[in-house]
Amino acid sequence: MKKILFPTDFSHVSNNAFIYALKLADSINAEIITMHVYHLPQVNYINVSEYLHEIYDVTELSHFENYKDEVPVLRRIAEENNLDHVKISHVLILGNLIEEIQKITKHEFIDFIVMGTKGVSGLKETFLGTVATKVMNDVKAVVLAIPERCKYEPVKNLLFITEYQADDTQSFLKVKALAKVFQAHIECLRVVPQHRENNINNMRNWEELIDNHNIKLHSVTGNDVEGIILNFIDSHKINMIAMHVHRKNFFEKLFEISLSKKLAFHINIPILAIHE
Fold this sequence. Notes:
The protein is an alpha/beta fold. It has 2 domains: about 1-145, HUPs (Rossmann fold); about 155-240, 3-Layer(aba) Sandwich (Rossmann fold). The protein has 9 helices and 12 strands. The chain has helices at about 10-30, 50-80, 95-105, 125-140, 170-180, 200-205, 225-235, 250-255, 260-265; strands at about 1-5, 30-40, 90-95, 110-115, 120, 125, 140-145, 155-160, 185-190, 215-220, 240-245, 270-275. The longest helix has about 35 residues, at about 50-80. The chain is elongated, with a radius of gyration of 20 Å.
């Protein structure tokens, strides 16, 4: 059975993303492991060693009580969506969130990570947004990020952003397999800046990867990358976008520059990040 890791802070954003985790689990016959990571508070007063045991006990008990109250909320979401048959287990961990996600992903052989992400407010990125970009960059798993205003709808039209290079093919095959599960159509899109040569040979090589009429290849020339992608999403009624993480910090940059504000946060469709 495949496994889906669902890191959560039990916020509205996370609970909304949980529906996608449930739907994905149901589609691929997977179990879900929900994960909540907490930190102990910083203590600065003198003679802290005298109270350290008490601090640990009180803090851990508090987190456990809050966690115990929130778990039934997730079960209720499953029941309301007629997905209470999906196997769900829960983990409460003291530690660093990214490190613990990396550990459990490796130890449990996680196939997908599904998590909610919030937008930006001015120049300050929210906690979930920061975590999502770090997970996309640093954790070797397929990550599905669900924007806060994204409402679940079946995935019928999936957009794969690509350069039609050889190192994109494995990611594409994963997207292709997922699209088959969803019975979704795939649109592959390359945006070529006007100063660069549009090498059509790579695109022709990719035609060998297409074995049905449910996949189309596109190449558009223009310097307004984000604008072209947004227009494509709108005109083709895209309801999931997928990308290969080519290099470290790619998604941090994506979430910080104008492309992120237009694409990652201002459109309400899931973003599928496939680690190299």
